[in-house]
Amino acid sequence: MRLRLVVVAAGLLGIAAVSAVALYDGRLVPGVRIAGIAVGSLTEAQARELLTTQTSDASVTLVSGSLSIRLDPTTGIELDVDAAVARAFAVGRYGAFPVRVGDIVGAITAGRDVALAWRIVDGERFARAIERVAASVERLSVDGDVRLGADGVTLRTPRAGVALDRSALVQAVLAATAADATVPLPLRVIEPALDEEAIAPAFEAARAAAQPLVLLAGTERVVLEPARLALIVHIVRVANVDGDRLVAQVDAVGLDALVGEIADALDGGARDAVLVPGGEHLTVIPGRDGVVLDRSAARATIAEAILGPERVVTVPATLTRPALTTVAAQRTADQLVLVGAYATYFPVNRARANNIGAAARTFDGVVVVPGGSFSFWQRIGEVSPRTGYVFAGTIIDGVSSEAIGGGLCQVSTTFFNAVARAGYAIDARYPHSYYIERYPLGLDAAVFAPSTDLRWTNDTAQAALIRAAATDTSVTFWVYSAPLGRTVTFGDPRQWNLRWPSADQPADPAHAPGYVVLGRDVVTTRTVVENGTVVPDDEWYSHYAPVWGGPAR
Asked: Looking at the DSSP assignment, which residues form a beta bridge with residue 62?
């Protein structure tokens, strides 16, 4: 019974459908929509007019991320209203009778929506619109690059490119409908040929070469500045199976020239460190190791170091150590302090300066050990032209004269005053025949071989280092030692028996007429205090005869 009712109902709907087609001859079947707009029961002309009005502001929106681009009829496209109306009018009018009946029934009961698509009406204008879209989104890929110059490293960061698939975009636009007119832009990423991975090794090598490189060979060092390294480091592009990459290379010819420059700077003989006197402590002028660079081995070491992370590198070389290294000299300088010093001056005289300079060099650097004694003549040795001494002014038998080695009394006097101020025990000291006014009164020290000598003893527990130097008009002695704990003071000289030259005393040729130095007797005392204890006072007696240059003219 139910089956019979269903058949009857279907038959009635079929009859109604056929009746509807007959009733709406020239009109669209009820229930038909185009892009959601109800056009059922309208004529084709009415449907076209309605669609045109309803979709007058329709467009296609192209999107990519935050980018949005609108295409509308001004860009050469429009909604294909005619085609959509024709498809809507065809509902229920084509096909076998059951099909037509089904279409009509479906439209009436459930509705039927026909898509409203886009079409190209001006190909050139549309093509230009597509190119404008491409111009707004496309970009070329950028290869990474590394440059090394005098100013350092320049890095160009790689960047991926973007390409628009124009054919896919056209198809997507034509496939869009008025109801769904948002189209994602079909974009393609173009990777750079030289990406970050491909340039990273060259960048790290260039960064290394942009830093100073310090080369060590013994005590010698050479600093290669980045501007010099940049001249021989080249960044080149190479191809391999995995793609192109950048590498840093050291130019062979440039490297050879650089190694030559380094060898010129490093190669040389050993040189002792120098202890310069004058201050509270000795000043150290660094010595150097003797260096002969192994050029072949150094070439490989330097080539690797230029592009490597280590910026302080030892280069292969044959080394010769100096007798006095800088380290040893500094250790000595740190341990010693100035315990006594004195300087005297003299008028310009080439012969005198020669003899004083020769004697000063003889005494410079002498070390007197604890308990050791020092003799002026024993140290100075032979005084003759063979040992570099010449005739110069001296005092012989109380009268100014000339002799080989003239001027040595100035050396002994200066030396005596330096040693006396250090507080050492004075074993023998002699005054001059007459008082020489450029020396402290009662503190001169004459020498005349072999009997008139200057002798003293190092009566401390520390070694004494003697330093001496002379100029054309002066001589200076310095005595350095570990701290002695001694203080030295001199009393004012006591003078008596002052006397003028007698009228018949011969004139001394070293003095101008009318110039007189009184004779006198002098006692000078020295007090030495060691760690709070007074050492017995020293008392030096001097007898000076008067001297003059004769009557004044």
From this structure: 69, 183
119-168 pLDDT, tens digit per residue, is 999 999 999 999 999 999 999 999 999 999 989 999 999 999 999 999 99
User: What tokens appear for 384 in the block?
Assistant: 């003759």
C-alpha span between 510 and 389 (Å, rounded): 21
Q: Give the range of the structural domain holding residue 47, as residue numbers without chain letter.
A: 2-62+70-136
Same structural domain for residues 242 and 377? no
CA-to-CA distance for 243 and 240, rounded, in angstroms? Answer: 5
Task: Please state whether beta strands 245-250 and 274-276 pair in parallel, antiparallel, or not at all (unpaired).
Answer: unpaired
Using DSSP's 3-state secondary structure scheme, residue 129 falls into helix
Handedness of CA 414, 419, 420, 425 (dihedral sign): negative
Residue 16 pLDDT > 50: yes
Residue that is last in its domain, among 287, 322, 357: 322
- How many residues are given for the chain? 553
84 found inside a domain: yes
**What percentage of residues in the chain have a pLDDT greater than 70?**
95
275 token code pair: 């202890």
| Residue partners of 75: CB distance under 8 A and separation at least 6 | 125, 126, 129
User: What would the mean pLDDT of 446-465 be, rounded to a whole number?
Assistant: 94
Distances (CA, A) of 304 to 173, 218, 251, 297, 316: 60, 20, 12, 11, 13
Enter the tokens of residue 512.
Answer: 């101008």
Task: Name the maximum alpha-carbon separation found in the chain.
Answer: 185
| CA neighbor of 52 nearest in space, from 62, 61, 42, 63 | 42
510 has a pLDDT exceeding 70? yes
Nearest of 66, 76, 58 to residue 170 by alpha carbon:
76
Per-residue DSSP letter, 517: E
The CA–CA distances, whole Å, from 126 to 75, 78, 176 equal 5, 11, 15
> Which segment of 15-29, 45-59, 352-366, 403-417 scores lowest on mean pLDDT?
15-29
* Mean pLDDT on 52-56: 88
Residues 115 and 29 in one domain: yes
Report the pLDDT value the prediction gives residue 20, as an integer from 0 to 100.
Answer: 54
Quickly count helices (H) and strands (E) in the chain: 14, 36
pTM metric for this prediction: 0.64
